[in-house]
Amino acid sequence: AGLEKYIDKKGAKYAYYVGCTASYRQINIAIATCRIFEKLGIDFTLVGDEVCCGSPFFRIGSVTTAKDLMKKNLEIFKDFDMVFFSCAGCYRTFFVDYPKWIEEDELPFKTKHAFEMLSELIVKEKIKFKPNKELKGKVVTYHDPCHTGRHFGLDMEQRMIEKSKNLMIDMRKVKKQIEEWYDKPRIILRKLEEDVGTKFVEMYRIKMDSMCCGAGGGVRAGYPDFSLRTSSLRCDEANAINADILTTECPFCWRNLSDANKLYNHELQVLGILEMISEYDLLEVLEEPTHEDIVAIIGRAI
Question: Which positions fall inside the Cysteine-rich domain (predicted)?
Answer without folding.
Answer: 14-94, 185-257
